[in-house]
Write a structure and sequence with these properties.
With 720 residues, the protein is an alpha+beta fold. Helix content is 20%, strand content 32%. The chain is built from 14 helices and 39 strands. An eight-stranded mixed beta sheet has the order 32-33-35-34-36-37-38-39, sandwiched between helices. Strands 5, 6, 7, 8 and 9 form a five-stranded antiparallel beta sheet that branches. A four-stranded antiparallel beta sheet has the order 1-2-3-4. It is globular, with a radius of gyration of 26 Å.
Length: 720
């Protein structure tokens, strides 16, 4: 998005401050914030404070008659053996991480596709995380695996202490099922790795003082040879301290080998360099586009795929943001400039249609489309001449589609080259995982999630609210059986509204057990800042326009009350991370609209967000509070700076994790301390483990969710 002139920015800031409720009437902490000590994550005093708050919350909510049965129901759902195991293909195997009551941290296991088709597949355990943690006296949480094809025997496993983003990475042998003696091992850090070959890794990690970006991610990529000390790894590329991160991507496909160095200059922009020998060649592509490459059987040339986040002029045509373009990569590279470049348009957005994602088989691009927040699927086949032809896929509808290709480009005669997994769900329909093949609408049902709640008599509908500036904002309403628009329905309004993240329909066994079954209404708001309508919807609520996200959310709340779906007495709001900022800001601005708030792993002190953990990477979304013009906007909505002594807030609930090394737990801690200082009732729960997800295993998840649901029923239930 173009940056306005300094004068224009000041005018925008002044207008935003004038229009935002309470912008000038709050008590604001000075730079000598008395609660800064709560930013000491592992400080003795801070942790003692956390334990006191946890005890208060558990005393109030844990003692309620509905807490224990709610937790029991949620844990049964989380540990249920009839869940659909999520899988990823590596060679002949489908791998899965499985957590249940016996395996709390999980089994990393595998099976074949033929076995996976069965109702009760036989799984082969590759690594038992619980046994490993016990043997090593560590609280390991699974962080993923990067395996070297085509045999996928050697993998670099990421293990996190308590669920943090920082991980220990160790080489593992999937045949011997043990860690490799003397193999590659990287100490705990926020690390990015890629296999160069069987005896070489590209590594971006914490190399010592000054080697990380201001956002806390690697900025130096080195090449590390097996059998040599990590300290002797050779530098390949070095980014700048103010960058967000530097990473590497290796494509080992025979005949199409390619190594890319990616330097993220901010959250949405990056510089992409092609490694050629010892030289780096910058790719002339839009710095905010998402790049991918396609190799097709019988076609020597690679296809460059560009997902645009800004308009792109090529020749005489301007392609709008949100488009998907395909180009011959060699021809693109040879072109003098964009006037000579030719592309084929595989997707172009409309007012209601946006690109949700793509997946690549050997000869097809599967295009997942959001049409008014409903999934559609198209496939584009590439011929020997490099041209694409489209076929609309008859996919399940209306609801949410998830598609992932099974093709392994490292296998010349891959039997799954044109097959893919398609997942369908909606608010009232349990997930179904289908096996499909390009060129056909015939699919096999691999797995179907059994219904976990009685949906008879329930209904889900899409409605629209008019925001402050007249924009139509869609939202979903999920009605429990027998509910009527009489203003008395306990209703939870959920939102996110940032970073181009879409909220699409999903089937929730947890909500079924703890919310719908007791008469609760769920509302999901598709506000600006999200990705439901592509980059334009996101960019409409960035930086100086961030207040639009909050206006949209408020408009949905007001519409719920106007339509008598609920009333302020029975309306609660919930959001996590950026969604935590959303509900925090909205609660500070319009507390009279709500009677409850669940604020999860949130950003709240927007004066200091860029100085805490990964916060500097989000300046592209919010602006820089150290810049006066930006702070004039941010200060008008930053929840921590807008708490008022004279406001009448309902008792609020904040949750976070000590091990969250993405969004600092100090945000939630300080917010609660400030509310308490001003005499406002507030509850707080901080899980000692869990990272940004809030919990490390199902027992922790059940406890956390039971706290939230018990609180919501305490605040929103109908009067008897």
């Amino acid at each position: 998005m173009p940056t306005p002139s300094t004068l224009a920015r000041w005018l925008l800031c002044a207008a935003a401050a004038a229009l935002t409720p309470f912008a000038m009437s709050q008590d604001k902490p000075t730079d000598d914030d008395p609660h800064l000590w709560l930013e000491e994550v592992q400080g003795d005093k801070a942790l003692a404070w956390v334990r006191e708050r946890n005890a208060e919350t558990m005393k109030q909510l844990g003692a309620r008659a509905d807490f224990a049965p709610t937790r029991t129901r949620l844990l049964e759902v989380l540990n249920s053996s009839d869940r659909i195991p999520a899988v990823s293909r590596r060679g002949d195997w489908l791998y899965n991480l499985w957590q249940d009551g016996t395996h709390k941290r999980g089994l990393w296991r595998r099976t074949t596709l033929a076995e996976y088709r069965k109702a009760k597949p036989t799984w082969e355990t590759v690594l038992d995380l619980d046994a490993l943690g016990k043997a090593e006296n560590e609280n390991w949480v699974w962080g993923g695996a990067d395996c070297l094809g085509p045999d996928y025997r050697r993998c670099m496993l990421s293990l996190s202490r308590g669920g943090a983003d920082a991980k220990v990475i160790r080489e593992f042998d999937t045949v011997a099922k043990r860690f490799v003696d003397g193999g590659f091992m990287l100490p705990e850090a926020k690390t990015d790795i890629a296999w160069a070959d069987a005896d070489t890794l590209y590594v971006g990690t914490d190399w010592g003082p000054g080697s990380m970006t201001d956002s806390g991610y690697p900025r130096i990529v080195k090449r590390w040879a097996r059998g040599t000390p990590l300290a002797e790894a050779k530098t390949v590329f070095e980014g700048r301290k103010e960058d967000v991160w530097v990473g590497v991507s290796v494509d080992p496909t025979p005949g199409h080998e390619r190594t890319l160095i990616v330097r993220a200059t901010d959250f949405f922009h990056q510089e992409t360099l092609l490694l050629q020998g010892d030289s780096l060649v910058k790719l002339d592509v839009p710095d905010d586009a998402r790049l991918s490459f396609m190799h097709s059987a019988g076609v020597a040339a690679d296809t460059l795929l560009l997902e645009l986040r800004s308009d792109l002029r090529l020749g005489e045509r301007t392609h709008p943001k949100g488009s998907l373009l395909a180009a011959d990569f060699a021809a693109w590279q040879k072109a003098k400039d964009n006037s000579e470049r030719r592309v084929q348009v595989l997707f172009e957005p409309t007012e209601t249609r946006s690109l949700a994602g793509i997946a690549l088989t050997r000869s097809h691009v599967l295009v997942n489309i959001n049409d008014n927040v409903t999934g559609k699927l198209e496939e584009w086949k590439r011929d020997a001449g490099g041209r694409f032809t489209k076929r609309a896929v008859d996919a399940p509808s209306p609801g949410n589609l998830g598609v992932s290709a099974l093709h392994d480009p490292l296998r010349r005669d891959d039997p799954l080259a044109e097959q893919y997994l398609l997942n369908y769900t909606d608010f009232l329909t349990p997930d179904t995982l289908l096996l499909g093949a390009t060129g056909s609408d015939k699919r096999d049902a691999l797995k179907t999630l059994p219904p976990s709640f009685d949906a008879s008599g329930m209904r889900a509908e899409q409605r629209f609210a008019a925001s402050r500036d007249g924009t139509r904002v869609p939202y979903f309403v999920v009605w429990p059986k027998g509910a009527k628009a009489d203003g008395s329905n306990p209703t939870l309004l959920y939102g996110y509204g940032g970073f181009q993240v879409s909220l699409e329909p999903w089937y929730s066994r947890g909500f079924g057990a703890a919310w719908y079954a007791r008469g609760g209404v769920l509302v999901v708001a598709n506000i600006r800042g999200g990705g439901e309508f592509g980059p334009r919807w996101h960019q409409a609520a960035m930086k100086e326009n961030k207040q639009r996200s909050y206006d949209d959310f408020i408009a949905v709340a007001e519409d719920l009350i106007k339509q008598k779906i609920t009333s302020a007495r029975h309306l609660g709001i919930e959001g996590g991370s950026n969604g935590g900022l959303l509900v925090g800001a909205v609660m500070m601005q319009r507390p009279e609209l709500f009677n409850a708030m669940v604020c999860q792993v949130p950003l709240l002190d927007m004066k200091r967000f860029h100085k805490l953990l990964a916060g500097a990477s989000w300046v592209a979304e919010y602006g820089n509070p150290d810049v006066a013009a930006d702070w004039a906007v941010i200060s008008a909505y930053s929840p921590y700076q807008n708490i008022r002594r004279d406001a009448k807030y309902p008792p609020l609930l904040f949750t976070t994790s000590t091990r969250d090394d993405r969004v600092h737990p100090g945000h939630a801690r300080k917010m609660v301390a400030r509310l308490r200082e001003f005499g406002h009732p507030v509850l707080y729960y901080e899980n000692i483990e869990g990272g940004h997800g809030g919990a490390a295993d199902n027992e922790q998840r059940a406890t956390l969710q039971a706290i939230e649901f018990t609180y919501l029923w305490q605040r929103l239930a109908r009067e008897d």
